[in-house]
Amino acid sequence: MVKKIPLLLIAPLILGAFWNQQTAKASEAEVADQKVSLNVVTVATKPIKTNVQSSVPPSSLTESTIISSSATTSKVAVTPKLVGVSVASTKMDSITSHLEEKARKLSEPTVETKSTLSVSDKGLDQTVSKQANVVNPPAPQEEQSDLQVMNDSRLSVSKASRVVQPVKAIVDDKGITIQYQATIPTNTSILYAVWGDQQGQNDLTWYQSSATGAAYVEFARHKEYGKYHIHTYSKSYGIMVGINTLEISLLRPQITSKVVQNNSNSFTITVSNVPSTITGVSIPVWTDKNGQDDLKWYQASQTSAGVYQVLVDIANHHNEKDLYNIHIYGNSTITGGQIGLATRTYSNVESKANAKIYVIDYAENKTQFTVNVVGSSSTKTLTDVQIAVWSEGNGQDDLAWYKPVISSNMASQIIDIAKHSNTSDNYIIHVYTNYSDGSREGLSLGAYKITKKRVDIKAPDVSVVNYQASKGKLDVLITQGTKTIKAIRVAAWSEADQSNMHWYVTSSLTNNQATVLVNQIYHKLLEGNYTIHTYLDFSDNTSRGFNLGQYYFAKPIGLSASQGNYAVVNNIIYLDAGHGGYDSGAAYFNQYEKTLNLQMQNRIKAKLEAAGYKVITTRTSDTYVDLIPRSENANASLSDLFVSLHFNASTSSYANGIESYYYEYYPEYPSAINELYHDDLERLSRSAFLAQAIQSAAVKNTGAKDNGVLRNTFAVLRETTAPAVLLELGYMSNATEFQKITTAAYQEKLANGVVSGILAYYKHYTV
């Protein structure tokens, strides 16, 4: 517990101590025939705690010893040693004032012990009872002075009073050399109490000097930077007497750092002036972007005494061009751990110029111009270019964005006002460039005036020709005007709910004209008034619609199976050679299925025509026709049946034989143009008969393996109104069978089998 000492009680003791010291070494100095011989216990500005430590001093100070205060002291007497001072009696008021100030400071509570601290008033017999946990410091000495008196103009000090400081301390990187400079009396030892300022007296260590008064304090024992306290005591016959107090400061290492950019991908950090007490340097680095998501610790390499370096690759930091944070840490032999040495930042953002941006090929009477974005090795690297262009009239209703391709750090874009308002106007250009350093720049190139030459615009002409009500047909004739037609769409329907609407689409024009056939068969063959709408899409991305009115289509007569009347037979057969054009079908041994399909179609066609039948085909050359148009053509042909010709393939080289397919309904594949008849029982029955007749005859004629009649929802089987089959006449993937199906003799056998099956169908269903 800390006790406060009233000023009036302690003042006599301090006054006596002060006066006693003035006469200790100068017997000739007397003041008013009065002599005071009292010793007092002085109080430290910061208390000392006991702490048992051990140490091995440097070899040069082998006689000094580090001791534990709790192990060596049972009684401690603190006797301040003051030099003699001659003071005139007329100056007593000044001395009294000075001593009162000292007494006031000493009365403040600064010491707490676990035992009772008793102060004797018996002069030199004054001691501390029991073993003290806190050791009071010696009497304070005036810093940097040989005098133990205040600089008061009212005090006269004799030259004889000047003395040399009894203790000096010399600091190096690793510790403190302490030297007691006065003569050490016989049977007297010198002890030093040393501790750092950071955490009280947690590191308090007692050092016993050598016979010459020397001791060495290792910083590594105290593990602190900052202020250190050194209190000096003499010990004689078990009595401890305070002699002197010193304070020194150990600064953290004052390193320097430098960052040098090596290239666009790396930079080097150099740390210099690193003392020997730092045994390693670690440097965490990260950019300002996205917190510390790119934080990386680097272990620096020592390149020479006191110099460490580390190479930072920006690939470790997401290749960011940004502000880099650099913290420098060292492994300290003093603290036994890592300490912070310095922090700094470094920006690797390129200072290169932006790319040059300008317009070329501009003239007021031209409707095109070019925007150039030109970079080089001396400019920033382009990563993206975006160009916004619009005309002043009507705000930004014609705003269009361009994204030219970057090549060799350059980009170029042709601007055509036809993609904007296409009128005489001022055209505004903004260019946005992104660079590899993460920067984005926007530049307005201003407005460029375009005056278009006046052109008389001729409107397109759309009309109905070749109207045949009894046949349910008409043609829509389109003649192109000034604007280029990109696509033509014709919609026709007769039902109020548009349930039989069909769209006719084409983009083919000959001599600026196109003809679109509207046929009743694509509208469920319904009688009624048909509404005809035509839409033209132009190359300038505009469209125009035409209502051509209503046209009556009569009830169909003289129909065939292609229109769902299976009772009528016209002796017309539709042959469909599968694949074609870019769709080769199966390909084996340098042969394409599309070629074999066309060869078989030609053989079968010739034989049927020789038998008196009319044959219509999907294609007669190597051209591509999509699946739905194949069925549309068949449905418009008045044919009695549909035969699609194919050759097969398998992942197994052993697969072989012939197989035939007819339609099976799958709910997940609804009909697109044959809603009324795709699952008609009569159609399915006739299709099954035709498939079986052809399968049996083809297998019999060729001796091929019979894979049977199968069912599937192939598009040509689903969308064709007439009875329809799809034939797989052999496996191209089987080497043996491939050799057969590519010969004329075997193809003749196949053709005869197919024709035989078709004739069997007609014989069975003869009207």
Automatic annotation (TrEMBL):
Q: Which domain of life is it from?
A: Bacteria
For the region Disordered, what residue ranges are annotated? 101-123
Keywords from the named record: Hydrolase, Signal
Nuclease among keywords: no
Q: Which SMART domains match?
A: Ami_3
This enzyme's EC code(s) = 3.5.1.28
MurNAc-LAA domain residues: 631-759
Q: What segments bear the compositional bias annotation Polar residues?
A: 110-119
Q: Name one GO biological process term.
A: peptidoglycan catabolic process
Select a single GO molecular function from the record's annotations and give it.
N-acetylmuramoyl-L-alanine amidase activity
Signal peptide range: 1-26
Any one Gene Ontology cellular component term annotated for this protein: outer membrane-bounded periplasmic space
PANTHER family, alphabetized: N-ACETYLMURAMOYL-L-ALANINE AMIDASE, N-ACETYLMURAMOYL-L-ALANINE AMIDASE AMIC
What's the name of the protein?
Answer: N-acetylmuramoyl-L-alanine amidase
